[in-house]
């Protein structure tokens, strides 16, 4: 070594993890006495590693995924849980039955590249899979996270993509055409009114569906948005009200009123 010391190592096969591992010791000399001492220390280290491994069975990817999801699901709203879980569907079909310590980075890389996904979606999938393997590493199922070896092509953003994202909304003229057509059809009047209301207020669908009469203050001409409606419950068609924590300042209210007054609808 650069510091003048000598590193001794020995490899051994760990049946519990089904792979070769290595132990090392560092001594100040390379004499026969030092070599004998290194051999004894290495043997003790191997014995300790094997003893520790004998008490810990390496679980399958599917089992680790189930453990992780119990924790992860409590951190997210149900709609996000639905999105993340769906992202693992094909991943578990491919790797679910194998021991998590067997999964290599190049396998995951080829799997992601083999999916017909947009570049940004690939990056998001890599993020999801990294969370799973980080959990496995933290609890001691694996020593190294294979996701650190996964390399994906960089996302190339063209000028057309940037302009498309910037213009991904309806302007007043386009909205006026939609509203005129919708109000001209008696069967679409209610839905059209909802579209106009969402356009003017910026409410999301879940926030709109969660509104109740108690949230509307006609005298003060104000609306309290305190909840959003979750449509991705754990039971089919389950509906769940989620509390929203928001704070609207007086300046924000005045700014919104000014913008609404400027619109000609």
The DSSP helix count reads 11
Helix content: 40-55%
Distance between the termini: 78 Å
Question: Which fold name is given in CATH as the topology of the largest domain?
Answer: DNA polymerase, domain 1
The CATH architecture term of the largest domain is Orthogonal Bundle
Strand fraction? 5-15%
What is the chain-wise order of helices and strands? EEHHHHHHHHHHEEEEH
Task: Return the average pLDDT rounded to an integer.
Answer: 82
- Supply the CATH superfamily name of the largest domain: Tyrosine recombinase, N-terminal domain
Indicate the structural class: mainly alpha
Radius of gyration from the alpha-carbon trace, in angstroms: 29 Å
Strand order of the largest sheet: 1-2
**Which CATH class of the largest domain applies here?**
Mainly Alpha
Low-confidence stretches: 233-238
Oligomer: single chain
Overview of the structural elements:
- The protein is elongated and about 95 Å long.
- The chain is mostly helical and about 260 residues long.
- The protein has helices at about 30-55, 60-75, 80-85, 90-95, 105-115, 120-140, 160-165, 170-185, 190-200, 205-210, 250-260; strands spanning about 5-15, 20-25, 215, 220-225, 225-230, 240-245.
- It has four domains: about 5-55, no CATH class; about 60-150, DNA polymerase, domain 1 (Orthogonal Bundle); about 170-200; about 205-265, no CATH class.
- The N and C termini lie far apart (about 80 Å).
């Amino acid at each position: 070594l650069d510091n003048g010391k000598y590193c001794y190592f020995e490899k051994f096969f760990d049946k519990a993890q089904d792979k070769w591992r290595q132990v090392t010791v560092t001594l100040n000399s390379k004499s026969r006495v030092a070599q004998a001492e290194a051999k004894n220390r290495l043997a003790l280290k191997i014995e300790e590693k094997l003893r520790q491994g004998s008490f810990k069975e390496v679980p399958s990817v599917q089992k680790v995924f189930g453990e992780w999801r119990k924790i992860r699901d409590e951190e997210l709203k149900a709609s996000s849980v639905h999105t993340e879980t769906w992202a693992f569907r094909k991943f578990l079909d491919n790797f679910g039955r194998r021991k998590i310590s067997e999964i290599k980075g190049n396998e995951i890389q080829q799997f992601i590249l083999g999916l017909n996904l947009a570049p940004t979606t690939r990056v998001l999938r890599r993020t999801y899979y990294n969370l799973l393997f980080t959990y496995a590493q933290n609890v001691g199922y694996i020593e190294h996270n294979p996701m650190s070896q996964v390399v994906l092509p960089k996302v190339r953003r063209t000028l057309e993509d940037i302009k498309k994202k910037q213009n991904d909304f309806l302007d007043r003229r386009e909205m006026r055409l939609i509203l005129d057509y919708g109000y001209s059809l008696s069967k679409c009047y209610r839905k059209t009114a909802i579209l106009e209301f969402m356009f003017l207020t910026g409410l999301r669908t879940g926030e709109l569906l969660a509104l109740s009469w108690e949230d509307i203050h006609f005298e003060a001409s104000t609306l309290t948005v305190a909840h959003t409606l979750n449509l991705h419950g754990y039971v089919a068609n389950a509906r769940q009200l989620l509390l929203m924590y928001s704070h609207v300042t007086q300046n924000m209210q005045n700014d919104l009123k000014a913008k609404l007054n400027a619109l000609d609808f």
